[in-house]
Known about the structure:
mainly alpha, single chain
Amino acid sequence: MAFDFSKMTVDLSAMPTTIDMGHAWLGGLVIVLLVLYIAKKGKPVEVEKIVEKEVEVEKIVEVEKPVEKIVEVEKIVEKPVEKIVEVEKIVEKIVEVEPKLKTSTPDAALQLLSLLQQEARFIDFMQEDLKGFADAEIGAAARVIHEGGQKVLNEYFSFAPVRSEEEETRVTLPAGFNASEVRLTGNVVGEAPFTGTLIHRGWKVTNVNLPKLAEGHDAHIVAAAEVEL
Length: 229
């Protein structure tokens, strides 16, 4: 059976024209509940935002940790490199010292011994056992050695004193004096300048004029053996 809406009528005069207290209280209650609902609905949103921020902070901290580990590894690698550089410097110093050491051939020294033996019988005298000789005999041999040795020195060498002052006089050595020319003896304390007594003037060679060696000459033979026929 179909319902006929055209026959349905509404009497507008039956609706209340005024709002009583009951309706007013009910309307206020609805408004309060609506406000509470809206307030409760907004809180989870703020909590979610805070949680998201905390998660982001944790992620940043986790990302920074590997960066700190990488810096520590770089420091460990640099230390061995510094040690290697120090070792290389020490090796360079050793190499620099070695070329400064001079090497000399013994030919000149052997030649001088040969001349002293030839003119003063120097090697014979030094190799002789003098215990069985009297002082007078030794003195006579020393005179021969002195004359022959002086002849060799005067003929092949030129000498000059290191210090020009007279011996037994007081001298002052300034700072930076040549230690190879002057040897300090006695009570050596402090730093230059030093003042002391000149005990020996010293000697230095100003010229050397040794004879030239013939090609093939053996300088180790300072005195040839003698055979009388």
